[in-house]
Design a protein that fits this description.
alpha/beta; Nucleotidyltransferase, domain 5; 5-stranded mixed sheet; 11 helices; globular
Length: 272
């Protein structure tokens, strides 16, 4: 006798939040070695992925990393650091450090960010990370940007979700920056930096209004200095802040989706 599968409850389709929509888009992208293979085909041997984190943060440095993966060793699970839970990022960062041909990290502090703006600070951090690689890279894959460097380079939109090397750099940079910001949490406890990593959460912005900024806050960012009319130079900053504020929501949605997938798999096994 054939047993009919247990019908699942159908929930009304709610419109996706911006965080969920962004997560769905990024999850559809495949993180592969396709770009690395094209670079190798041109004669390059040491292809570095380059990425930065912290552009939209209100506090602390912007951090960049450059990673040259070993073509002979596959690190499973590489993807955009925003799609990984913190504990998974830590595990992958350790594997990258152990098995990559080379990796390097560079940071540009908040004072320098205020001097040259976040866009140029991000490019500076990337350039310094590349310069610190040993052995040196002979080709660069960069997330969305070009940097002032004589090496051949390819900017890739959503590169951290499409290129394994850029994803590896994204993970290394994210883990390093989170560590740096957490170290300042006991010094400036009112901002709860350990949980928000310096981004403009409701509590963080409320603490800024109540207590004012710390010396390590980015004074040129509108939420910090509360400019009534944003300057033209801040337009890029504000856009990035809106994007990065979604990180906590994305992580929450990601955890919910993982739990839902596990529940569905259990239900399938029960009805099989």
């Amino acid at each position: 006798m054939q047993v009919s599968p247990v019908p699942r409850s159908t929930k009304s389709q709610k419109p996706l939040s911006p965080s969920a929509a962004k997560l769905r888009l990024l999850k559809k992208l495949r993180c592969t070695l396709r770009f690395e293979k094209k670079a190798w085909a041109t004669g390059a041997h040491l292809v570095a992925g380059v990425d930065e984190v912290g552009r939209g943060s209100l506090f602390g440095p912007v951090v960049a990393a450059a990673v040259i993966l070993d073509p002979a060793y596959r690190i499973r699970g590489l993807r955009d650091s925003k799609l990984l839970l913190p504990e998974r990022r830590e595990i992958l960062a350790q594997r990258i450090r152990q098995h990559a041909i080379a990796y390097a990290v560079a940071a540009v502090d908040s004072a320098r960010i205020d001097q040259i703006n976040i866009y140029h600070a991000s490019r500076q951090a990337m350039r310094e990370a590349v310069a610190n690689l040993a052995p040196a890279a002979d080709y660069l894959l960069i997330d969305a940007l070009r940097i002032d460097c004589q090496l051949p380079q390819q900017p890739i939109i959503h590169g951290d979700a499409r290129s394994a090397s850029i994803a590896a750099a994204s993970i290394i940079a994210k883990v390093e920056r989170d560590r740096l910001v957490r170290e300042w949490d006991p010094v400036f406890p009112v901002y709860r930096l350990a949980s928000n990593k310096g981004y403009g959460t409701p509590h963080h912005t409320a603490a800024l209004r109540q207590h004012g900024p710390s010396p390590l806050h980015r004074q040129s960012f509108a939420p910090v200095w509360n400019a009534p009319i944003p300057q033209e130079a801040l337009a890029f900053m504000l856009e990035e802040t809106e994007k990065e504020e979604d990180l906590g929501k994305i992580e929450e949605v990601l955890r919910e989706e993982i739990a839902a997938e596990a529940s569905d798999q259990f239900a399938d096994e029960e009805t099989a």
